[in-house]
Amino acid sequence: MALIGNSSSPLPSEFLLICFPGYQSWQHWLSLPLSLLFLLAMGANATLLLTIRLEASLHEPMYYLLSILSLLDIVLCITVIPKVLAIFWFDLRPISFPACFLQMYIMNSFLTMESCTFTVMAYDRYVAICKPLHYPAIITNQFVVKATIFIVARNALLTAPIPILSAQLNYCGDNIIKNCICTNLSVSLISCDDITFNRIYQFVIGWTLLGSDLIFIILSYSFILQAVLRIKAEGAAAKALSTCGSHFILILFFSTILLVLVITNVARKRIPHDVPILLNILHHLIPPAMNPIVYGVRTKEIKQGINKLLRRLKV
After folding, report:
1. Are strands 14-17 and 94-96 parallel, antiparallel or unpaired?
2. Which of 11, 60, 121, 300 is such that its CA lies 20 to 30 A from the CA of 138?
């Protein structure tokens, strides 16, 4: 490992991830629920993707958007959780300089891609309920392709400077990151440069992307609620709300954990340092584990598709 502070090697060849510095004795116990959640997330999302792929009745824009969400969840899980479990089980704390910043980039870009996907799904539900006659003409396969390009391009480009700015800092002190993952703040704090611009950029971009998505989602559901309240037919309002229920629950999972994470980081001095670390890990596990289960339980078409898939596997 290159010595940090050596003038001939201004950048470290690797960092050391120290998970839960004050509670390392119970890391093995924590690894059990985390590994079970990881297996659940990977298995549930893989099952959902396979079901949508094999069931012809699910080859519709709404389910294609759900497939995008599952793919994003799988990538986020694979990017974060295996390394965390490797630290817990085998004490494999070193992470190379490129791998650390690649992890940072994937976490930032895919997290905002997921938020943007929820926004597109909210628009899909808005059109389905507020403009049902125009739905087949507006929400098409071509719309999904364009939305996917927008989701990837917007978030991949705007979040790219975050790891680039961190990678350009001089790390002339300690190379120990007091976190299980390479978050921008955890990494940049161990540099000996001024990180003000780095932090401002992440703050502005994060709140611009996530904030604009949240505003759009709130507006979409406000219009949906107004349209539902105007429905006179018996049972029609409940049916309309039921079509939005799964999506709303997923947004709640995503937003609640993210909000708690933000609050704990703001109140960093008042709470143990390990709490934000644990919440950051759970944010990469709980929504991916719950998203396919919620849709599988609440959507009749997906339940039928999964049952058909299970019958095929038995045969």
Report:
1. antiparallel
2. 300
Which numeric CATH code is attached to 32-85+97-170+194-314? Answer: 1.20.1070.10
Closest by CA to 218, choosing from 313, 304, 115, is 115
List the chain domain ranges.
32-85+97-170+194-314
Specify the DSSP element, H or E, that contains 303.
Answer: helix 300-314
The conformational region for residue 179 under phi > 0 = left, psi -120 to 50 = alpha, else beta, is beta
Cβ-contact 158, 164 below 8 angstroms: no
Which position has the token pair 């161990």?
190
Share of the chain above pLDDT 90, in %: 46
How far apart are alpha carbons 26 and 287 in whole angstroms?
A: 24
In order of 71, 88, 284, the CA distances from 50 in angstroms are 11, 31, 22
Residues 310, 297: Cα–Cα separation, whole Å: 15
First to last CA, the chain: 53
**How would you class 105 by CB atoms within 10 Å of its CB: exposed for 0-12, middle for 13-18, buried for 19 or more?**
buried
In the numeric block, the tokens 């759009």 are attached to 216
CB 2, CB 9: distance < 8 Å: yes
Name the helix (H) or strand (E) containing 176.
strand 176-177
Confidence band for 4, pLDDT divided at 50, 70 and 90: very low
Alpha-carbon span 30 to 194, nearest angstrom: 35
